[in-house]
Give the backbone structure.
Amino acid sequence: MKMILLGPPAAGKGTQSAFLSEYYNIPAISTGNIIRNNISEGTELGTKAKGYIDEGKLVPDELIIDLVLNRLKEDDCKNGYILDGFPRTVAQAEALKDNNVNIDKVVEIVAQDEEIVKRISGRRNCKDCGAIYNTHDMPSKAGDKCEKCGGELLQRADDTEETVRKRLAVYHQETQPVSDYYAAMGNLVTIISQDKVEDTTAAMWKALGVN
Ligand code: AMP
């Protein structure tokens, strides 16, 4: 199963991709996480990407496309994968097609801009395992530590209101055409992000025909 998760920041892509990964037993590949890891490790890619991320802009296609295509050739991808955060431009979607990557299903999770701005202020990520929490509606049972691994919970540097508004503008301009692209190919399902995570999850399983 090869899947793509599309949607604006904080619509729930990271959380749902973890559920999909567990259900289908395939890796969830988050380009945002790959880039952030490169930044913290100080790699050449990280150095080039940092300015874009900090400003809420997309990293240029030429930096990200080969990185993803190479990642998909790794052993753990042989039975499929969930792409979370890629493709974000039509050029990235075309790069998948040109490299004979046939996507089975695209799940788009949509949410209103103002709802996203509200959610972003509460979002926290585990520094160690990447688990996602929200102080408003999905707090860690371990307080300011991760309930899964005990790691420290941090707010992403690009999760400020100012940066998220820029990321939303980029999303509307660059990434929404990607959902039109997959809708035209006939393999897009769209679900509405709900206040409660479990309601979004239920909507996703229903849309995918999984009971
Ligand atoms: P995310 O964690 O998916 O919200 O991504 C965080 C940031 O990483 C984005 O705002 C972009 O700067 C960068 N990024 C992640 N995925 C991509 C992509 N497919 N194309 C370009 N930039 C990306």
Summary: The pocket of adenosine monophosphate is lined by residues 9, 31-32, 35, 52-53, 56-59, 64, 85-86, 88, 92, 167 (CB under 6 Å).
